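Amino Acid Chain and Its Fold in Token Form
===========================================
What this section holds: a protein sequence and its matching fold, both as plain text.
Structure line: whole-number tokens from a learned vocabulary of local backbone shapes, matched to residues.
Purpose: to set a sequence beside its fold so the mapping can be learned.
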Amino acid sequence: MLLPIGYDNFRALIENKLEFVDKSLFIQEIIDDIVTQAAVITRPRRFGKTLNLSMLHLFLSAEVNGQSTKGLFDGLKIAENKDLCVKHQGRYPVIFVTFKDVKGSDFKKTYSIICKLMRDLYLEHKELLVSDKLDETEKQAFKRIIERQGNEEDVAQALKDLTKYLTLHYGVKPWVLIDEYDTPIQASYVHGYYEPMMDTMRGLFGSVLKTNPYLYRAVITGILRVAKESLFSGINNLKVYSSLHSAYSTHFGFTEEEVSVLAKKHHLENQLPDIKNWYNGYQIGDTVLYNPWSIANCIQEKGKLIPYWVNTSDNQLIRNILVRSSTGFKEQFELLLQDQPVKQLIDENTVFGDLTVNESAAWSLLLMAGYLKVISQKKTDDGLWCTLAIPNKEVRNLYQQIIKQWLSNGHGIAWYNQFLDHLLTGNIDLFEQELKEVMEQTVSSHDTGRNPEAFYHGLMIGLTASLHRSANYDIQSNKESGYGRYDYLIFSHDKNKPTILLEFKKISTVQAPEQLEIQLEKAAQEALDQIEQKHYLAEAKQRGCTHILKIGLAFCGKRFKIKYAQLK
């Protein structure tokens, strides 16, 4: 049997007799959570959210798309709870809608996708058109959605109206299952139509969830916990279960025990330590989990260890955070690359508008999206402080690839590797030529204008990202040595390659544009001289290094100048 890859329909998984890691007790935990009328469950992408909602849909409904659901759960853990099955299985009308593909490049396109989504949803319940429980006005409103003739108010009320029609027709209030609710919001932020998109989604969700007398229960999944004030304002019956909560912790992602069983079944038990290093480390509440998408692919590829999960989406938002963050953020991020955990204030509510002004929002997004993990957490008067780390090798590789792709700007990874090699081998003239190309073609005035120190510090993190945890190099920054703190040290274990110490100088103002080149030259020489004057090489010499390259780099916006000297 093969593990399913790309399946998000529970019926297809069962009917094709694919190997299934039984997560059916998710249904029991949802049904037993009777105090919560609307549950929002946030997990990283590719962690089984759509599949679990599809499973819940098929359990609650007697029939889906004209097909009976009888027998789909035979032999699964949920079937052992006979009382629950008798009371709830096949007993409800269900509205199941996924927003995972609602992500156009502008608002008009995305709104059109939403209208089509509502049309398709209504067509799944077209039996209501001939129901004697709906009056003619209600049937006409139903037809407007199907024919895509509804106005903005019709679309905003579409989910709530459907709960009313189903209640009238069946005499039972429906469950509402909403999958990937935050996908349109994230896309709108990246593409610049955030405000109108928020208005639309606020109308859709607000109408169906807020004081709706026709709603029985709602389950909503997504990657991020979008702030209640910005999306779910006034909805008091809603409870959010993020990755920091223990509820539902074992149902999304594979546990250690589940992966061990799979590895043994597929004769990969000897590779378990490497598999753990690559794909383990996600923590939901107190449960440590493996990425299910990567595990399924790794097993199908007979244990091949490569990035699977990180290559399944556009990482533009993550790139923007890493590139445009402050010096302080980059310094903390560099510690993560060095396997040193960092403590950050985490706000579980994501407000996309805060990402460029509030670093807590950026750290929170990286955590909730699965790009960081929590080692420990502590509630204080200031909020929730979390100790964070990179979860595994796969995510570490993603960070390195994002930075490499940014710097290479379409030239390709081979060009980046050559660019880095010129620095590491001491070929500074070629390195300077290629750095000039990076500055002219890759860097925007936004990157350098607001906080140029952050850009250049980020540049060095980018250049050396692939060297962290390398057997050949140690990377240090802002560390005491001699009579001060140097900016950047690349310590080489290979005596044939230089240890490199870099010192930066910034020129803030230029009295006359024609004087810039002279000022840059002077500042670069000052940076080079400072290395000797403050004995920054003391640490390197103490470690027995004799082949040293000193570099002074002065910059002003996109313009820079390098001075260097070799010590042998």
Residues 445-449 have pLDDT under 50 and may be disordered. The first strand starts at residue 38 and ends at 42.
